[in-house]
Amino acid sequence: MRRRGGIAIALTAMVAAALASTAGAGSSAAAKTQAVGCKSTLKVALVTPLTGGAGFLGNDQLSWAKYAVKTLAPKYGLKISLITGDTPVEQGPAPAQTLAQKYVADKTVVAVIGPATSGAVAASSQVYRDAGLAHISPSATRTSLTKGPALEGTSAFFRVVPGDYIQGPTDANFMIKKGAKNVVVIDFQEPYSQGLANAAENVLDKKGVTTTRLSIANTVTDFSSFVTKVPSSADFVFFPTQKPGDAQNFAQQLVEQGKKAKVFGGDGSNDSTQFKVPGSFVSNFAPDITAIAYNKSLIAGWQKDNPGKAVGSFGPPTYLAVQVALNAIKRACDVGKGSIKERADVVRNVKRIFVKNSILGGDFRFSTKSNDPLNAKFYIFEIQSNGSYKLVG
Amino acid sequence: MFPEPFRDRLATRVDEFIQLTLNGLTLGSVYALIALGYSLVYGILKLLNFAHGDVFMVGTFIGFGTLQLLGGSADPVVPVWLLLVLITLAAMAGCAVLGVAIERFAYRPLRDAPRIAPLISALGVSFFIAYSMQLMFGAALKNYDTFSLDGGALYFNGFDVGNVRVPLIRIITIVSAFVMMILLWLLVTRTRIGKAMRATSHDREAAAMMGIDIDRVIVFAFVLGSALAGAAGVLFALRVPTYATIGFLIGLKGFTAAVIGGIGSIPGALAGGLVLGFAEAYTQGYVSTRWSDLFVFVILILFLLFRPQGLLGKADIRKV
User: Is the ipTM of this complex over 0.90?
Assistant: First the structure.
C-alpha cells in the first residue's frame, strides 16, 4: 500500500512538473509582449559559471557586474536588481537552457549579461531570441556565435569582446613571428577551446608550421602523459583552457619533462595570480586596463568594494556589457515613454549604443555587419620572471 | 647496424615509454592509496564509501591551507622537507577526523538498514562535502605551486633513466605512497588491532562474540582509510592543482582501482591502482588522448563482467 502511495506521489510530482513547464512556456510568450514600467525594479540576469573549474571567471564577472549596476543604474535613472544564474562548465549546456527558460518566463527580466561561455550561448540564444530578450556576453568568443553559415547565436545576441576569428589568427601570427616551426595545438573537448584551437591551427597550417593536435577531456587534471606526447622539437603548446591553473600545471610539467616548448594560453588563462610560469604567453581582449588614465577612479571604486582583489581580465568587459545593457534599457524606456512595451525594444536599442572612453580602452560601438564590437583586437602578454604580464603584441 | 634516423626514432620511442611508465607509476601509486580506503571500509562494513573521494579532496585543501600557514611555497618558514612532512601529517590528521565524523553521523545510524540506505547516505555526504568546500573556499583551482619551492628544486633535481628525468617530486610521491602501503600492510598483519580488523572483516558477528569491540574496529578502519586519502591528496596536489569537486572523478578512479585489484584486498588495492595508472598513461600515450577516461571505465566494466572478484580478491561463494 505504501509503495503504491509512493508511486502515486511520484506520478503526481511528474505531472505537476510537466504542467509547470507548460505554464512556464505560456508565461514566456506573455512576458514577451507585456509592458513593464520603468519606475519599477527591473531585473538584469548575469549568466556565468560561478562554481566549478571556471568559477573564478564568473566570480570576477559578478564583482564587476555588481559594481556596474550599483554605479551606473542611478545615472540612468533606473532601479535594477542583478540576479545570477550559475552555468558550471563541467555540466555542459543544460544549466544555460534551464536558466533561459526561467528568465524568459519572468517579464521583469529585461536583459541578460552573458551567457559567459560560448557553449552556453549556443544552447540558449534561440530561447532568448524567441522571447525578445537581449543577451550580451562579456566573454563568449566562439566565431560561429556571430559569423559563418552555421550561426549559433541569434539576432538578440551581442558580445562586447571580439571573437576567436580574431584571437586565433592573432595568436597564431604571433607564434609565427616568434619563429615557431612546430606547434602542438590542444583542445579540451568543449566549444570554447575547440573553436579557438581550430582558428589558430588553420592559420598555422596555411603558413607551413608543423602542427600536432591533441584533444584532452575537460576533466583531466594530471597532464603528464599529454606532455610526454609533446615533441621535443615543439616551440609552442597552444593551450586555450578556461582554467588558468591548468595552464600553470601544463607549463610546470613541460619543465619537469625537460621540454622546451612554451605554453601559449588564450584569454581564458589570462590570470596572473594562477598562471605565472615565466616565458609563457597569454592573449586577451583588452590591454592592461589599469594603465588607462581615465579608468583610475573607476578601478579605485571597484577595489573599494572588493578589497584585496586584483583586476582580472573577465571583469572589465562585464562592466562594459552592463553599461551597454543599461544604456539600451534606458533608451527603450525613453522610446516607450516610461515603460518598456516589449523586451525586444531593448534588443533594438543595443546595437545603437555608443560608449565614449570605454573601460576596455577607446570608444565602443558595435559593427554594422555583425553583433561584434567594431575594430576590436586581441593583445598578447608575456609572463615575466616575477610573474607579471608584459604587453608584447 | 641500423640507419641513424631509425635509431633516433627508436630512442625517442624508448624515452616515451619510460616517461609514460613513470607517469603511470606516479598516478597509480596515488590511486592505490585511495583504493586502500575503499577496500578497508568495504572489507569491514561491506559499504561502498562514495564520500571517500571527497575526503581525498579535503586532504588536498588541508595541505593547501597548511602550506599557506607555513608561509606558502615562495617563502616557507621551515625547510622544504619539514614543510612536506607537516602538510602531509596535517592532511592525514584532518581527514582522519573527517572520516570518523562521516562514520559516526552518516553511516553508523544506518548500520542495520537495508544496504541501499548507507549507499545513498554516502552519495549525500559526498555532495555535501564537495559543495560545502566550494562555498567556503571558492571555485578557483588551488595550486600548491611547488615549482616555487627552493627555486624549483623538486622539479630540476632527481636522476635520469636514459634521457628521461625522474624528478624529486615524483620520487617523493611514489616512495611515500609505497612506504605508507607497506606500513599499512604491517599494521594489518602484525598487530592486535590488525588482527581484530581481519576477524571483523571475516565474520562481524563471530568477532563480536569473541569480544572484539566492533565499533572501535570500524572507527579505526575509517581513521586509517581517511588518513591515507589525506596523504594521497597531498601527494597528488604536489603536482596537480586541486578544486572542490575534484573528489568525484578521482574517487571513482580509486574505486575502480579497488574493484580491479579485488575490493577488500590490500595487495589488490596496490595492484589495481598500478594497473589503472599504467592503463591511463599508456592509453593517453599510445591509443587516444581523447578517450583515455573511457578506456579506464571500460576496464572496470570488463572486470565486473568477467572477473568481479578482481585480480587478487576472493570469489564470493554462496551455498544454496
Answer: no
CATH number of the domain at A33-163+294-362, please? 3.40.50.2300
Q: Is the pLDDT of residue B161 over 60?
A: yes
Q: What is the CATH superfamily name and number for domain A165-284+379-391?
A: Response regulator (3.40.50.2300)
**Closest CA–CA distance from residue A378 to any residue of chain B (Å):** 25
B133 or B11, greater pLDDT: B133
Q: What is this structure's pTM?
A: 0.74
Please tell me which residue of chain B has the smallest CA distance to A52. Answer: B139
B139 touching chain A per CB within 8 A = yes
Q: How far B21 CA lies from chain A's nearest CA (Å)?
A: 9
> Domain residues of chain A, as ranges?
33-163+294-362, 165-284+379-391
With a CB cutoff of 8 Å and minimum separation 6, the contacts of B186 are none
pLDDT bin (cut points 50, 70, 90) of residue B4 is: low
Q: Mark yes or no for CB contact A243/B20 under 8 Å.
A: no
CA distance B150 to B80: 7
Partner-chain residue, chosen from A52, A222, A225, that has the shortest CB–CB distance to B240? A222
CB-based contact A52 B245, cutoff 8 Å: yes
pLDDT tens-place string over residues B211-235? 999 999 999 999 999 999 999 999 9
Establish, for the pair of chains A and B, how many residue pairs have beta carbons separated by less than 8 Å.
114
The strand ranges marked E within chain A are 36-37, 41-48, 79-86, 109-113, 134-137, 157-159, 182-187, 210-215, 236-239, 262-265, 281-284, 339-340, 354-355, 364-365, 379-383, 389-391
